[in-house]
Integral membrane protein (Streptomyces albiaxialis), 102 residues
Amino acid sequence: MAQAVRRSHFSPVSLLNSDGKPHPVENSFAAVTMLLGAVAIITSIWPGLHLISSWTGLAGVLTGMWAQFISATTGERFVAIIGLGAAGVGFYLGVAHGGLIP
């Protein structure tokens, strides 16, 4: 039964496009949210980098909220929520270490 064997290659984008349709804008917002969240949470480790962590955290929270609003698949929502959580933690720690203004 050769027709029963599905041959598909794995790619990370296929996890985001689980409905089979491409969503470039939604995937971009989810990826940017994840990137901003990672930068915010990594830079929040050092109190001297509070400007970077608080501003990238704030930008990550805003893009994450918009990514949740326009998301079309569960994979996009998952990536956006993980990035949104990391951006929120980075933002809060950045504000605790000195805030948005030097």
Remarks:
- The chain has a mean pLDDT of 90.
